[in-house]
Structures are given as C-alpha cells and as structure tokens.
Amino acid sequence: MSAKRMNLREKYQRMTRDLAWKPSYQSEDDIFPQAKYEGIIIHDWDKWEDPFRLTVDAYWKYQAEKERKLYAIIEAFAQNNAQLNVTDARYINSLKLFLTGVTPLEYAAHRGFAMSGRNFPGAGPQVSSQFQSIDELRHAQTQIHTISQYNKYFNGFHDWRHMHDRVWYLSVPKSFFDDAMSAGPFEFVTAISFSFEYVLTNLLFMPFMSGAAYNDDMATVTFGFSAQSDESRHMTLGLEVIKFMLEQDERNVPIVQKWIDKWFWRGYRLLALVSMMMDYMLPKRVMSWQEAWEMYFEENGGALFEDLARYGIRMPKYWEVSVKEKNRLSHEVWSIFYNYGHAAAIHTWLPDENEMAWLSEKYPETFDKYYRPRFDHWRKHHQEHGRWYNNTLPMLCQTCQIPMAFTEPDDPTQICYRSSEYKGMQYHFCSDGCKDIFDDEPEKFVQAWLPVHQIYQGNCGGASVPEVLEWYHLKHGQDNLEYLDSQDRANWLRWKGLTEQAEAVLQKAANE
Predict the structure, then answer these.
(1) Residue 395 in 3-state DSSP?
(2) Are 100 and 167 in contact (CB under 8 A)?
(3) Domains of the chain, CATH where assigned
(4) Which terminal residue of the chain, N or C, has fewer Cβ atoms less than 10 Å from its own Cβ?
(5) Cβ atoms of 434 and 447 closer than 8 Å
(6) How many angstroms separate the CA atoms of 118 and 40, rounded?
(7) What secondary structure letter does DSSP report for 6?
C-alpha cells in the first residue's frame, strides 16, 4: 500500500519539530549558552508558531520560481540598455545609497539569523531563523546583480563593499547592525524581525520600490517585488516572536518593552537616510516623508501597538518626537549631505523651483519658513563664489553616529545637544533617545568607531581630505561633488543627444 499523504500540518511537524532531539550527555545550558542570559524565560518552545507552515521542499520551489522570473527581467533590462529610460541621472544616486547602505545590511542579517538559529533551543525558531538567513543572503545577491548594470555607466558603484566599512555616513547603517549582532539572540530578533521588519520595513522598501517604478527603473522594481513576498513572511514572524515571548512569562514584558524602545529609535534614526531619498533624490516623487510616516507608522504602527497593549506593551518611547520631526527630518538630512558632498560617494544638488514648490506644498508649516531661505542662500553662493562645501568635521552622535544637525523637538531653530559623562569622559548625542540608549549600555557604545574621531587620530589614510578620500576608494571629481557639474550628468546629456550641453558641463567642472 502507498503511504498515506500527509497534510500540511503533519508535513510541517515532520520537517521541523520531529527533526529535533533532547541531548543526553550534554546539558542544554552548555549547548545553548545564550538562551537564558538575556533574562527571557521560555517554558515551552513548542508554542512557537510559524503561520506559514513552510517546509524545505516548498521553500526551494517558491524561491527558484522567483529567481527564474527575476533574472529573465534583469537580462532583458541589460540587453535593452534600459538604464537610459530612467527619468533623470539624478535618480541613480538613490541606487548608490541603496547599494552601499542597504545591501550590506542584508548580508549582515543573513549572518545574524544564522547566529540566532544556532542559539535557540527550540526547533521552530531554529527552522524559521534558517529560512530567514537564506532569504537575506538571496536579497543581498539579487540587489547586487540588479544594480550591477548601472555600474557600467555611472560613477560611485565601483567599490561599495569597501566603502561600507569606511565612509562616514555608512557608519550609520553599519553601526545599527553591529549593535544588533553583538546582542543576544532574543534582542537580535526583536531588533530585526520586529522593530525593523514589522514596524519600519515598509518605510524602507515601499518608498524605494515605488520610487523606482515612478522613475522607470523596472529592474529595481522587480527585485523589490521578488523580495517583498519574503518580507511579508519576515514581518509575520517578527510579530509572532514578540507574542511568543510575551505569552511565555509575564516577566518577559519589561525586557521586551525596553528592546522595543531602543530599536524603534535606532531604526527611526537609520531611516533618516530614506527621508532625504524620498523628498530630494527622486526626480518623480511618490509621496513625501511626512505622508509616508503618517501612513506606515502613525496609522499602521498605532494599530499594532493597540493590539499589543493587552500584553502590557505600550508605544515605543519617544514615538511622539518622531511625529514632531516628520515635517523637517528630510530637510535637515539633505542639508547635511549638501554640506559634505565633497566627502560622499553620491552627488548632491539643490532642488529647482518646481521641486521647491512641491516641498512647499507638502510641508506648508516648515519649508518656506526654515529651509527655502537656506537653499536660496546656497544657490546665490554657488552663482557668485562657487559651490559651498563645509570643510570642517562635524560632531557625531555617539549612538546613531549621524552628524549633530537634528533640531530640538519643539524648536526647529535650535540644534539638539545632549550629553552624558561616563568614567570621566563626556559623550554627546543628537537626541534624548540616543542618550537613553547609551546610558543603558555605556560599555557597548564607548567602543563605537566614530569616523570623525578616527580621522582626527590619523586612522583613515591621513589628516587631509584627499588622503581620506583615497582611503575611502572614492574618486574625487567623479564619485562626489555637485551633480550639475558631474561626469554622470555630462554622460547623460550625451546619451540623450545633447552634446554641446555635455561639453559645457565638463568645461565648467574643469574650470572650478
């Protein structure tokens, strides 16, 4: 007789729980030393639920089908020189930011979930961590392959992995994952699976993929859709792991709440890079950062935390500060990059009159009052004296590592400064949120690798800007500086048949 066909639940049980065993000659505490030291109490690992009931054979089948579709589109994109169909060469700088800032984080997540899977005693979380680890590795690979076409035609893509470990603004995403990966397994999954994947990931992927679609970058849209089905599973598992910990023991609640507070704020500060991409780097804009924050965090996140209130979980600490900053965050971040555009592997520029009209419409309370005058001043300086660059090195926040340019929550005209003293040393922060995180774990953050400090100590190739840029592997005059005078713009004009304008751009750049 043929064997009775198993249903999905039985098959999932065989492929997960039935693969586990109880150790006989070693204690579980010795095998899984990180399972208890964070203070999380688990009574029954079998209560871990995977709502997808995903098994290994189904996983490979689904992923293989997505790969076939994705690479067929990438191949067609390359054969048709579709990089020439995007709205404007300015848009390519958002891909440079994505490749250097986000793609290495996918690989870090791959390593982090492999680590967590090794340190969880239960078969359910072990399997879930394994699948997510493989997902994250796949995402890194597909993003590299998709964006590689642009490397043939545009500057700034050539050494993204080297830059990720060295360039000042990339220390922001790098420090985020270094912090998560040096935590225990429960904090790691809270940081990545819940706080980032569930609460904040839509603010990363939706603007990037929608922005790509609006700007006719169909290759990026395709890898976004290919990854988004995985992200949906990750988001669901992120919520499940939070509920699992909260349902296991009430003593877990304050620990989980503290992690949610910390990682909401760390993730929010990281997404500051996305805010400027949405409002300033897309020639055709999908929505403003303020609209995205209201939709994806205030509405969706608010409903989520209403649901979690029955477990004793409240909204993340300082969420109200993020609401106060939503109408100025992108302007402050873009101003940082405009100031230090000579030390970045992307081009920056001032918005034109149509774009400033859009910003004025989207930010009626702040843009014309605080930021339009700033841009008008910089534009006048460019016309009369040349492009403005700030040749000083800024103070960095000890926690998020962003230059100290954020303003007080209730006063957009005053820079927000906070400080703490630890073992006779003074440490500086951009916000109450970053100060709180430091004060809770000072020994972790006093070790932070801060680019400005390292430059002053001579650890970044030398004491001068040219030496630092060489250490970055950043080609001065090609990868950085003003977009209007860039080689990328000149090439784009040539490709569009505007040869005289292209020559004028190159001549102006040579004269400056």
Answers:
(1) coil
(2) yes
(3) 35-481 (1.10.620.20)
(4) N
(5) no
(6) 17
(7) P
Neighbours of 416 (CB within 10 A): 19
CA distance 462 to 28: 50
Cα 149 from chain centre? 22
Helix (H) or strand (E) holding 408: strand 407-408
- Residue 209 confidence (pLDDT) above 90: no
Distances (CA, A) of 230 to 169, 207, 233, 256, 284: 28, 17, 5, 25, 27
pLDDT in tens, 91-150: 999 999 998 999 999 999 999 999 999 999 988 888 889 889 999 999 999 999 988 999
Q: What is the pLDDT of residue 128?
A: 87
Which two tokens mark 183? 């935590």
User: CA-CA distance, 70 to 64, in Å (whole number)?
Assistant: 10
β-bridge partners, 420: 427
| Cα angle value 467/471/474 (rounded, 5°) | 95
| Torsion angles phi and psi, residue 11, rounded to 5 | -65, -40
Which amino acid belongs to residue 359? L
To 5 degrees, how large is the angle CA 415–CA 419–CA 420? 170
CB 278 within 8 A of CB 287: yes
CA distance 240 to 262: 19
Question: Residue type at 292?
Answer: A
Instruction: Locate 320 and state its tokens.
Output: 């109200």
Angle, alpha carbons 225-400-37 (nearest 5°): 90
Q: How far is CA 271 from the centre of its chain?
A: 6
